[in-house]
């Protein structure tokens, strides 16, 4: 049991939650909200940065050969047979490998960015809001490192609670409760199917331990694997989301505060892709192979439909939200090609998209804070009044289109190559998604950035220093993983070979 590594991962968010809960002593009748709120923000930001540093230290201690680096194991429901006749696979094991570690680092990076971009939003950065964010960070660390599929389901569902509160309580408009209900019930209904499938796996194998299930993936028959994979895929398709299970996503993004949108786009949407990577080919290879044509067809429809739906949006937040549907359609295609290139490309797309999509939501929120409208038709010529914002917007749009040397380019190149290896016709449809993404990305960037200044632009204030540091750091990492991708690709491929291929 490596308690040192486990404390590095789990202790900072837990300490941040405890620190915020006991921060009431800082408040006195003579102090106004400003000083008390500033103290709360500094507490949450401090522990989120400590957590980010801890994830980097954990990455440095990773097993470079592709195996799992153990964190800890806990005897959670084991006991004498007369008292507890059924055990769910023995000790509860937490470990990280080359796949999960990068999602953990992405989580550690997105959370402090979410806090910083909301720094002056007094309505949002209350004690309850900050505690929800740190609880969400802790749950994400756990769901990316647990090696028991039943506990994975519990943590997968547990993520819903703090995000539901963030949407429903601190949402920005009148329809925030409707968006929260959409988010909660879509994910919950899909996850019920996954729970039934996990019970079926336990009934077949007698355990829910991930490594045990991956080592005997041939035991269920092809028919059993097909139905089990179908249930798990439907649950993950809602979370990714894939057409036609995407209805909740635009509503949630439009109504969420900026931190909620950044967390949704940056990391929560990646839970579905991560779950498919973990549960499809390692445990249910025959089921994934049998249903691969249907999944690919849904992915193609998602790419085309999501791209055309993005082109017709008039709300800047809905435009960015629908672009995520198109990109995640590409991820779903390459996840079922059973090709090491495709699996690597899908993971790389998720990591790069987590940074770029979060940055787009930050940029459109900056626009809304300045001008109090999200309608695209009111924006024009922002390169004149907001030159720094305009430059960042152009660079981010280029990264979203996957121009070299962005991280999106590496992921989409590998995904296109894998699609052509599977079927040239599939590859053509995937390439059409790349072209359509250029259409809506360049249209949006050109429409709001260039031309004569719009008559309704009332505030020419450009990005401030805090916003510039956040956006510049995200751009830096979005292009760093494209300029030097080998330090990610090699570790991911070693882990893929270790668990599945």
Q: Write down the secondary-structure element order.
A: HHEEHHHHHHHHHHHHHHHHHHH
Any idea what the shape is?
globular
- Summarize the main sheet: 2 strands, antiparallel
Distance between the termini: 28 Å
Number of helices: 21
Summed up, the domain count is 1
Average pLDDT taken over every residue: 83
Number of DSSP E strands: 2
Low-confidence stretches: 28-33, 79-89
* Helix-and-strand structural type: mainly alpha
Strand order of the largest sheet: 1-2
Radius of gyration: 22 Å
Strand content: under 5%
The residue fraction in helices comes out at over 70%
What does this structure look like?
It is a multi-pass membrane protein. This is NADH-ubiquinone oxidoreductase chain 4. The chain is an all-alpha fold and 501 residues long. The protein has one domain (3-499). Helices cover 72% and strands 2% of the residues. It has a two-stranded antiparallel ribbon. The longest helix is centred in the last third of the chain and has 32 residues, at 340-371. The protein is globular and about 65 Å long.
